Amino acid sequence: xxxxxxxxxxxxxxxxxxxxxxxxxxxxxxxIDLDSFIVEVDGEPVSxxxxxxxxxxxxxxxxxxxxxxxxxxxxxxxxxxxxxxRTVDSHIKRLRAKLEGYQHxxxxxxxxxxxxxxxxxxxxx
Length: 125
Fold this sequence. Notes:
Blueprint: H1 2-13, E1 24-27, E2 30-33, E3 38-41, E4 44-46, H2 50-60, E5 67-68, H3 69-77, H4 86-99, E6 107-112, E7 116-121
Helix pairs in contact: 2-4
């Protein structure tokens, strides 16, 4: 609904080649299809919740950009969300745990202590 509309609006403003005219993001061995809510690593489907996919999409489609908890809460839960910002932490923790069994040396969801999270890439691999 509204969250997806916000994400799509953000992505339209981001002029990256991966996101032109379709809601599919690929980087190295990661593929995120936002329309069908499918995430694959090395062609293997990863079982994630809709919110985990939205978080992964938001981080991954802005490689190496730092997102504060507040950034993620506002864009994914909405400005009127009154819950604890730690809900972001618990979603990221579950997302990482689900990705743990897959090899992804070229990218990781990195914690920037006291700041937030980013999708960090290693282009040298």
